[in-house]
Amino acid sequence: MKKPLILVVDDQQINIDLLKRIVISLGYNVITSTNGEDALKKVELHSPDLVMLDIMMPGMDGYKVAEKLKGDEKTRRIPIVFITGLKDLENNIRAFEIGADDFFTKPFNMKLLGVRIRSLLKQKMLNDKLVGMEKVLVTLART
Question: How many domains does the structure of the chain reveal?
Fold first, then answer.
């Protein structure tokens, strides 16, 4: 079984480096991006199992990236974890309304982040299996 792949998106290299170390310590593969446009290209190219996303970035912000991912049939089931310095309730609510699966404000608890990542990846794996079984059932029903 292949290791899950996590895409880390942040415009600050120091944040990317920290999140990358956390992801690697959990035993997962990681790719990174410093902006929203590049992140969408990497999602299309690599099909990550989870996206960790900053909100405030130049150009396309994290909200717009999440809206595009959740609005596309091919990517809508990829879990999104927002990690941001924005601490107000409005940003938290907006992220969940867009379709975020979790929301952490900086500084965050690394252990809790690790537990949530593992949990979301497990949910995604089970959901992917369910979708696969549904396709098999539809195919069998047509024959």
Answer: 1
CA distance 32 to 76: 19
Q: Select from 18, 85, 20, 112 the least CA-distant residue to 6.
A: 20
Please report, for the domain that includes residue 39, its CATH number. Answer: 3.40.50.2300
Give residue-wise pLDDT tens across range 68-113.
999 999 999 999 999 999 889 999 999 999 999 999 998 899 999 9
> In sequence order, which residues have a C-beta less than 8 Å from that of residue 142 and are 6 or more positions away?
none
On the CB side of 11, how many CA atoms lie within 13 Å of its CA? 14
Alpha helices, DSSP H, located in the chain: 13-25, 36-46, 62-70, 89-98, 110-142
Helix (H, G, I), strand (E, B) or coil at 53: strand
- State which residues form the domain around 40: 5-142
The model scores a pTM over 0.85: yes
One-letter amino acid of 46? H
- Per the CB < 8 A criterion, the answer to whether 104 and 81 are in contact is yes
Q: Coil, strand, or helix at residue 52?
A: strand
Look-up: residue for tokens 């959901």?
127
